[in-house]
Each structure stands twice: as structure tokens, then as C-alpha cells.
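Input (structure):
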């Protein structure tokens, strides 16, 4: 009897999120990009809520909670879209309801909870998010605020974020696949940084995407002097506005790098960092990426 050895050549996908390949039909159909461009303003925060809605929350508090959210998303290896989508929920919620600063981290956790459920095949658990707050919130509070967000946003969660434009923009640019991948990775990082900066709060996602792509092109020395015109032709965004937004993105990156460098220097000077009283009151937690546990700023 003849014997056969059966060998499975499939890669080990256990524990790895599975994603569909890019659909060339959708990328080549101009109507898809046109629909994104025509709909994006619907999901922008309709006002600067620090001036007319919020009475206890300041811009620096938003920056703190969004940076914490970014660290949690990174630590949990969530899909790239989860973080900007959760920040969108947070901003839209704060445009409608005034909350106390002590509830801001709870709101951020609930927004991540919803965005993860929408975008991931294996969403983050509520218990894990409670842990990341050092148990400063309860699972019951998390699910209650999840319901409040859904009610206030009228279940309209499929918001458009800068990441939605990246594939459409890069697909239409004269770049090799390897360069496209490198540009996309950097552009996603730059767009995420913009989500933590309040000055980009009401900037259209397509504009942030254009600026992030252009910044990545310049950073990788792939710009040819015509990228502004190309981005304008693809999205219809004004070239001067893209140029101005690019400068703001580069400034945000520079500020982030300076803050990181000064933070490393300070950590060598003192073992226990001092924390301003008003920051402690917010009770924001940060993730120690080396140990995988939450620590107070």
C-alpha cells in the first residue's frame, strides 16, 4: 500500500487577527473616494467644546487622555483604526455633554471599548480596560457609559478618519508597493499624533491624511516637488491648505520628539516624577510598555 505524507503549508495564524486583502475594485472606483470626501464633515466635532460646552475640562486634559488611549491601543496591538475612531467618539460626545474631569478617563475607555468592537475580530475586553485604569473605574460604569455614548451619538459609529483615505491616496500615487507600505506606516503614525493634538480637532480627515502622506514622503526623501499637486488632484483639497497642514503636522512631530527627549533626561535626574495637583485629580493612568502594567503619570 502506498503511503502519503500530508504536510500543511499554511502559516501559523493562531492569535493573529485576519484581515481581507485590499479590494482593487473599491480602490479603483472613484465613487468610493468621492463618497468619503462628501461625508467626512458629518463626523467632525461641530464646535470647540472647550469654549461653549465643557466647564471643567481643559485642552491639556484631552491631550493626556488621548495619549493614554494611544498607549493602550498600542499595548493591546489593536487595529490602526481603533485609536482615531475612539478619539472621534470622545470629541463628538464632549461636544454634546458637559462632564467632570474625573470622568474623562472613563469616557476614553468606553470610546475605545466601542471602537474595538466595531473594528476588531477579537475586541479588547472590558475587564482589560478596567485594569488599564488601575481599577479606578468599574465594569458596570464602563458598560453604562458605553450605552450613553451610543445614545448621544445615535448609534452613528462608522465615522470617517484619516486612515480611511490613506489606501485611496497611495493607490493613486506613482509609488512602488514597498514604498507605499513604508509611507502608509509612517502616515498612520503621524495621523495618530494629530489625534492627540487639539489643533487638529476640527481639521477634515482627508486634509490630515494628505498632510501625513506628504510628511512621510518628505521624511523618506521620496518627494519630487509635485506631491502637492498630486494630492490636490486626488482629494480636491487646496494646495495651500495641504502645505499649511503639513507644517503643523511637522511641528507636532517636532514637539513630540522634544517632549520625549526631555522626558528621558528628567527620568535620569529623579526617580519619582512630580505630578501637578490638577493632573493627579484627573487620575489618568499611563501604560508602562516595558512591564505591561498601568502606572500613574
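Output (sequence):
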Amino acid at each position: 500500500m502506498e503511503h502519503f505524507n500530508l504536510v500543511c503549508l499554511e502559516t501559523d495564524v493562531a492569535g493573529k487577527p485576519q484581515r481581507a486583502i485590499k479590494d482593487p475594485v473599491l480602490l479603483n472606483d472613484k465613487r468610493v473616494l468621492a463618497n468619503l470626501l462628501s461625508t467626512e464633515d458629518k463626523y467632525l466635532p461641530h464646535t470647540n467644546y472647550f469654549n461653549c460646552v465643557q466647564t471643567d475640562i481643559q485642552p491639556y486634559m484631552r491631550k493626556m487622555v488621548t495619549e493614554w488611549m494611544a498607549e493602550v491601543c498600542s499595548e493591546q496591538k489593536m487595529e490602526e483604526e481603533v485609536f482615531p475612531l475612539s478619539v472621534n467618539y470622545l470629541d463628538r460626545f464632549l461636544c454634546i455633554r458637559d462632564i467632570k474631569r474625573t470622568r474623562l478617563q472613563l469616557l476614553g475607555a468606553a470610546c475605545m471599548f466601542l471602537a474595538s468592537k466595531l473594528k476588531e475580530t477579537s475586541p479588547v475586553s472590558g475587564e482589560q480596560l478596567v485594569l488599564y485604569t488601575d481599577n479606578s473605574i468599574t465594569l458596570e460604569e464602563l458598560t453604562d457609559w458605553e450605552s450613553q455614548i451610543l445614545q448621544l451619538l445615535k448609534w452613528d459609529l462608522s465615522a470617517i478618519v484619516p486612515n480611511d483615505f490613506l489606501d485611496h491616496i497611495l493607490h493613486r500615487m506613482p509609488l512602488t508597493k514597498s514604498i507605499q507600505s513604508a509611507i502608509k506606516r509612517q502616515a498612520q503614525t503621524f495621523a495618530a499624533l494629530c489625534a492627540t493634538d487639539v489643533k487638529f480637532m476640527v481639521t477634515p480627515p482627508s486634509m490630515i491624511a494628505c498632510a501625513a502622506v506628504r510628511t512621510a514622503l518628505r521624511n523618506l526623501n521620496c518627494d519630487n516637488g509635485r506631491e502637492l499637486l498630486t494630492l490636490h488632484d486626488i482629494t480636491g483639497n487646496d494646495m495651500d491648505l495641504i502645505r499649511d497642514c503639513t507644517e503643523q503636522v511637522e511641528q507636532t512631530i517636532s514637539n513630540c520628539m522634544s517632549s520625549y527627549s526631555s522626558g528621558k533626561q528628567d527620568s535620569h535626574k529623579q526617580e519619582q516624577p512630580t505630578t501637578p495637583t490638577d493632573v493627579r485629580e484627573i487620575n489618568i493612568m499611563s501604560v508602562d510598555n516595558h512591564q505591561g502594567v498601568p502606572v500613574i503619570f
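Notes: The longest strand covers residues 285-288. The beta strands are 285-288, 293-296.
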